[in-house]
């Protein structure tokens, strides 16, 4: 056998066995480390997916918290709680239970009782949230702090919820927190039921519970089934008890995890491991969702007792399981070994061919060597020298071939070096472009940005927005610290440094900063450590939120005024119930006592004092915009004429009144008495401002069209003075009831509060502008009527009339019921008195034809006046009914007419008013 063939065979066998040995060694050496790293990667995948799901749940919480903190939700809850607050716990529970039974009994969603809760203002607001976040929520409903329903987006199965575990978990005797109600898959709705329960707080007190049913499976499906996740492995969301909440292609809670995984979850072991399942090996990573651990701050769980859900929760947390097939994971390692074998085989073949090539003898040594020299000189290094002799020429030919190969390798190395230099230049150019891009972004950013030294905090650079907004010159700011400039206080600077050291960054810290001109601005400040040219720098960003802070302050003031109005209405209700017997009894005594006697005079003083107290209550109701008034077309110039005439007679002659009343102003729909009171109160307020300096009061009335507050045509009443003016702190409180700057005992503090209430009730606006030492101007804007017409005068008063009809009188206040009974009896009517709604309803049901009329109080414990009226009208339609109330948010005159009530009286009622209303309603019902 020729030497070249022996050499080729030796190379073949040596290379082949070497490849086998090296490949096997590489595989077994790397197998355990590779498998360990893949187990850790599997655990990382499960944690990352769990964090994504938790992030989705926190987004749901944040959205629901924003919804729960809305003003309309809190206002509705406060009103609902107030309607139950006056009841004892037993009475309150009975009332809620009665409503709950009625709710369950009525199955028609269009029923009026059901729609009180599914079509009220709050329910409509919740439905709009459903539409805005379409597909995110199922039912959303709100209960008060006693568990009674306030509003719902649809008809629920029950009205009362205070006994339910999720409600108690969220309320927790007023100390509760957010609660997730994980009750499982519900066949009745064809989906997974996960309720988010939010305690609604006012200050630190829980005033109600908001519950949102979440479409969580849809969100989980999108998070776990995208293409990236499919390449990484299979994901399953499961309960710690083993039931699978989500698995692609399967119905929730229809499958169960292997017991080996369940045991891991039982002992809270999240270590990744290798699972041998039916002969198939899988890498398993599992991660428990922190949000579902039922730790303090968030509650999580469910129960079989809540509703007959399939596979209900028993207080189990959630785990995210990542499945990865071992064969699929190890495929990359196998592919690496295959490539090693393939490349090695190619190298062995190349070595064999090369050995054959170099084993040939030199047949034409000189010619071949000469040709080889020329080819090398020409740059051709792939030589084929045909020399077969085994002598010096053969050695020389080998030397030439080796030289050619060395030159080729050197040329390749030089070319590689040239390419590396070119690549470095590209990288340097890209870095320079990146620096230029950052500089443009930095300088043109709309938010305030600075770069400062990490050691001493001195500004190194700042953008145009910083210079423009703060007013600090660039040449002054650069080289100085924020404290030296006065931009940030030393205490705030230390606060920023503490958070930077503790967390490595500062995120959205709210700060009050000082501009160059000394004015304040509010911003959200963030800071991040960056590296520039190998040195640590601090990149700071500040977003101006001054306008937002101003809006928050104005919103707080509006909410404060609304709350005060609600309080005033409640006080008025109780006061009217107290005044009614005083005024009514004194009126009856005046009829019985001899005219001119001492006793009659004393009783008359009692009657007049009661009327004055009634007027004060009406002022309170006017402020709270909850009083009943007759609105008619009015020419304000006529009202002002009377007011100015009256004012001139009472204001000292040393004080001038300048008037500018435009006589061509159109009509407004208003209560003339109330408008008279607005003008009188504003002029009186101006008098107090100028009486010490004998100043001037200006009164102007004109028709305008350019008001921002009233975009349509309106009338503007302006009352100005050149008095002492009002300070900025005081001007924020002037419309609050009982707030006064006068000495104790010289002012009630109701004047401007009443003006504010009247203007708002007339759908108008009131504005005030004042400067210390220059005076104050109040401007009242009232909308014009769209069509002018003559002023409508009040209806002729109906003279007091008597009668003999039979009247059923209902009022839970015994003293009020006796007084009304005496008044009606003196008018000739036959009166049956009941102090309980249920007794009155039973009496009417027993003999409905016996009674010609029903007079009922509005606010009663077991059944309110409007509820009693509905029951009576269902027994005998067209029954004449009069509602008599001191104040109630549940009903007004217009609402009473809609439900069929013929008359509406506000307490306290004098005898003549009651006589006129009773006779009017009876006569109208007889003529129908």
From the spread of the alpha carbons, the general shape counts as elongated
* Strands in their spatial order, largest beta sheet: 2-1-5-4-3-10
CATH architecture of the largest domain: 2-Layer Sandwich
Number of strands: 28
Discrete helix count: 27
Structural class: alpha+beta
Percent strand equals 15-25%
Tag the structure with descriptive keywords:
928 residues, Beta-Lactamase, 6 domains, six-stranded mixed beta sheet, five-stranded antiparallel beta sheet, 28 strands
What does this entry show, briefly?
The protein has 928 residues and is an alpha+beta fold. It folds into six domains: 41-347, PAS domain (Beta-Lactamase), CATH 3.30.450; 362-444; 448-544, Beta-Lactamase (2-Layer Sandwich), CATH 3.30.450.20; 549-623; 632-783, Heat Shock Protein 90 (2-Layer Sandwich); 806-927, 3-Layer(aba) Sandwich (Rossmann fold), CATH 3.40.50.2300.
